[in-house]
């Protein structure tokens, strides 16, 4: 079974300020590099990233991702659609979708999610809602590519059976949206 990893790394970082949050340093590496490393595991055959910044794209290429460039300021669904179109061009049966601003996920988390999914969908779960990363079978690719607005696939995943929900520690599902989030992440990284 061919598995693709799709890393969405084209956000506008509006809440972060003038700088690109994905290039912010955390533990000696760019934030996006941490997210990219979590997708390096034997079960993943193809790695694709969606980026709007040349600097982010360069980092992802250095981590063996094929990069799809989109215009800056695109919605989350536009990035997801561009990525799913790239994933759908190959012989992929499953895709795991992750975000470039989630630096604390581990390869073991991704492996556990892939194992939980089997031939169907599965998602990380926090409190009472789905959250990235999530795994989708090929039959879901057209639905993902057809999403609109600034939302991801959460609405599609809300009805997942409890057995397809991966509960991870909240600190590993932490995403970085603001400078304060980055400061907390740096403190957490120093503490571990």
3D structure, described in words:
The protein is 32% helix and 23% strand. It is built from 7 helices and 9 strands, in the order E-E-E-H-E-H-E-H-E-H-E-E-H-H-E-H. The strands form 2 sheets. Strands 5-4-1-6-8-7-9 form a 7-stranded mixed β-sheet, sandwiched between helices. Strands 2-3 form a two-stranded antiparallel sheet.
Write the layout of secondary structure elements.
Layout: E1 3-9, E2 25-26, E3 29-30, H1 31-37, E4 46-51, H2 54-62, E5 66-69, H3 76-87, E6 94-99, H4 107-117, E7 122-126, E8 129-137, H5 141-145, H6 154-157, E9 165-167, H7 179-191
Parallel strand pairs: 1-4, 1-6, 4-5, 7-9
Antiparallel strand pairs: 2-3, 6-8, 7-8
Distance between the termini: 35 Å
Shape: globular
Number of strands: 9
Please list the strands of the largest sheet in the order they lie side by side: 5-4-1-6-8-7-9
Tally of DSSP helical segments: 7
Mean pLDDT: 90
Oligomeric grouping of the chains: single chain
What would you call the structural class? Answer: alpha/beta
Described by strand count, sense and barrel closure, the largest sheet is:
7 strands, mixed
**Radius of gyration over all CA atoms, rounded:** 15 Å
CATH fold title = Spore Coat Polysaccharide Biosynthesis Protein SpsA, Chain A
Q: How much helix is in the residues?
A: 25-40%
User: What's the SSE pattern?
Assistant: EEEHEHEHEHEEHHEH
- Work out the strand percent: 15-25%
> Are there runs of 5+ residues with pLDDT below 50, and where?
none
CATH superfamily, by name, is Spore Coat Polysaccharide Biosynthesis Protein SpsA, Chain A
Reported CATH architecture: Alpha-Beta Complex
């Amino acid at each position: 079974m061919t598995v693709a990893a799709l890393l969405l790394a084209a956000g506008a970082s509006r809440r972060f300020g003038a700088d690109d949050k994905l290039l912010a340093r955390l533990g000696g590496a760019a934030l996006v590099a941490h997210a990219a490393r979590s997708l390096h595991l034997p079960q993943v055959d193809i790695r694709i990233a969606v980026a709007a910044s040349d600097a982010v794209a360069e980092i992802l290429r250095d981590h063996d991702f094929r990069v799809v460039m989109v215009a800056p300021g695109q919605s989350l669904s536009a990035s997801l659609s561009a990525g799913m179109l790239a994933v759908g061009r190959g012989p992929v049966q499953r895709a795991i979708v992750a975000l470039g601003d989630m630096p604390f996920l581990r390869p073991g988390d991704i492996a556990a999610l892939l194992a939980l999914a089997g031939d169907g969908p599965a998602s990380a779960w926090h409190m009472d809602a789905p959250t990235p990363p999530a795994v989708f079978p090929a039959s879901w690719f057209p639905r993902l590519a057809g999403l609109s607005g600034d939302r991801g696939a959460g609405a599609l995943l809300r009805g997942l059976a409890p057995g397809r929900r991966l509960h991870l520690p909240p600190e590993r599902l932490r995403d970085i949206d603001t400078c304060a989030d980055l400061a907390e992440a740096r403190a957490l990284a120093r503490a571990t």
